[in-house]
Amino acid sequence: MEIHQLGILFEQVQLQNSLGDGKTFPDCIARRSLEEINKVYLQERGNPQFDLKVFIEANFLLPKATSIVYKSDLTKSPEDHIRELWKALTRTPDSEGGSLIALPYPYVVPGGRFREIYYWDSYFTMLGLRASGRIDLIQNMVDNFSYLITKVGYIPNGNRTYFLGRSQPPFFSLMVKLLSEEKQKNNLSEDESDPLIIHLPSLEKEYSFWMKGIEELTSSNPSHSRVVRMPDCSVLNRYWDEFATPRPEAYKEDIELSHQSNQSPEILFRHLRAAAESGWDFSSRWFRDENSFATIHTTDIIPVDLNCLLYQLEKILAEAHLLSGNAAKSSDYLKLANQRKAAIMKYCWSEGEHFFFDFDFVEQKQKTQLTLAAVFPLFFELATPNQAIEVERILKEKFLKSGGMTTTLFVSGQQWDAPNGWAPLQWIAYKGLLNYGFDELANRLKVNWITTNRKVYEQTGKMTEKYDVWNKNGEASGGEYPNQDGFGWTNGVYLAMSESI
Q1: Which own/partner pairs from 471-475 qualify as long-range (CB within 8 Å, at least 24 positions apart)?
Q2: What is the mean pLDDT of residues 296-310?
Q3: Is 264 domain-assigned?
Q4: Total number of domains constituting the chain
Q5: Residues designated as active site
Q6: d(CA 221, CA 74)
Q7: Paired residues of 224 in beta bridges
Q8: Is the residue at 257 inside a domain?
Q9: Confidence band of 478 (pLDDT split at 50, 70, 90)
Q10: Domain that holds residue 465
C-alpha cells in the first residue's frame, strides 16, 4: 500500500489542505505500517477531539525542506552561484523512503519543493553540468534513467511511485547523445564503448513504451495509449497516462476542477494527467476554450513538440544501431523517422498561418493557439528553410519580449501561458534559430533572457523556475504553485547560453 492509496484518510488530508501543499503528504514516510495507521484513523476519526493534523504528525515523518538549508551569497556572480549550487541540489542514492523510487547513483533535483529527479528537466540541467565540467553527474543521471527504464519500463515523470503511469517529454536520447559527445571529446579508451551503444537497449525500450499499442490501431479504432493512426495511415503520438484518477500530488485541485467541468471526472482526470506528462502543466494550449481550464482535452491532441522528440529518438536509434554494426536496423529507424517527418509536416504545418501547430485528431483540424512548441521543428531541423523564415518572423513579431520568449500569446492565469517564459523553451528556440542562421534574433533572445535571470538574481539571490518575460524590470513569475528556488533547468540554460555551448 502507498500513502495515496489510503482512501478516506488520504482524501481528507488533501481536501482539507492539511499540510499546505498537495505534494507534502504523498512524500511523507510512515512511522509504522500504513495498514495499521489506517485502521487507527478509521477508529478515531469520529472522536470529537480528533485533530487530523496532529494525527498526521504523530504517524508520519514530514519531508525535510532541504531548500531552506542553502543561503545565497550575493557577492558571488550568477555563474559562481550556480556552480556552487550543484552540490546543494545533488541527492545521494537511497536518501529517502516512502514513495521515493530509489536510484543507484547521485542525481540533481530541480530545487525548492522538489525532492526527486524529474525527467525532462534533467536534460537542461545537464547542459549546465556540461558547462561546469561535471560529466560525472551527467553520467550518473543517464545511468539512473537507464535503470528506471529497465526497472519500470519507461522513465516516469519523476522517481516517485505516485508518478507511475506517465512519463514526460522523451529527452533521454538527447541526454545519451550529449554524454556520447563528451566522451568522444575526451577520447574514449580502447576498452570503453560509446554511450549510444551501451544505452541502446534502454533507447529501444523507451521507444517501445511510446509506440505501445501500434498493432491495435485501425481506422475504426485510431488511438490507443500514446499512439494515433492518422487518416493517411501514418502514426503520430500524443500524451497519455495509464490512470484516470486525480493526481495524488494535486488531488484537491483536480477534484475541484471536476466540479466545474462538463466532462466526466475520469475523462477530465486523464486529460489532466496527460498534460502533466507533457511538462506543460498547465496551458491554454490544451483547452478547447482557451478561457476555460475545465475544457482541457490533452489526449485529443497531436503535439508538434512530442513528435519532433520522437523523430529525434528514431534518428538516434538509427545512429546507435549503425555504430553497433546493424545497418539493416539502422535503415529501418531512418525510414520511420522520415515517415514521421512527413506526417508532422502534413498535420502540424499551416500554409495559411505560416507556423507549426498542434493537431486535434478528434476534430480533424489544427489547433489555433500560437505557442513556442513551434520552435521544436527548427531545433531538430525538420523545418524547410522557407518554413524557418516564416517561424522566425512570427517569433520576432509576436513572441520576443524584453525578458525572453513568451510561452504563448494568451494570458490565462496558467503558468505555461503568457507572460511566463521558461528556460527549456528559451534553449530550444535559441538553438533552433541558430540552426537556420538567424543569429541576430537568437542573440537578442539570449541577451534578453540572461539579463532577466541576472536581474532577479541580483534582487533575490535566486535562480527561479520561470520568469515574467513581459516585465521590463524582470521578475520571477507566479504559477500553479509558489516559485521555486534552485533551479536546475534555469541554471543549466543560463550557463550554456553564457558560454554559447
Answers
A1: 471/402, 471/403, 471/419, 472/402, 472/403, 474/402, 474/403
A2: 99
A3: yes
A4: 3
A5: 281, 465
A6: 58
A7: 227
A8: yes
A9: low
A10: 383-501
Mean pLDDT of 335-347: 98
Taking residue 292's Cβ as centre, other Cβ atoms within 10 Å add up to: 14
Write down which residue in 27, 42, 64 finishes a domain. Answer: 64
In a domain? residue 16 = yes
Residue 456 CA to residue 478 CA, distance in Å, equals: 14
Task: Tell whether 498 and 387 lie within a shared domain.
Answer: yes
* Backbone torsion region of residue 213, taken as left when φ is above 0, otherwise alpha when ψ lies between -120 and 50, otherwise beta: left
Write a three-state SS string for 128-139.
HHHHCCCHHHHH
> What is the residue whose three cell numbers read 482541457?
296
- Structure confidence at residue 472 (pLDDT): 73
129 C-beta neighbours (distance < 10 Å), count: 27
Strand partners, 355: 350
Other beta carbons less than 10 A from residue 205's beta carbon: 17
Q: Are residues 494 and 389 in the same domain?
A: yes
Q: Is residue 349 part of a domain?
A: no
Closest Cα partner for 124 from 463, 453, 490, 379? 490
pLDDT tens by residue, 57-110:
999 999 876 554 577 888 899 999 999 999 989 998 876 689 999 999 999 999
Dihedrals phi, psi of 418, to nearest 5 degrees: -60, 145
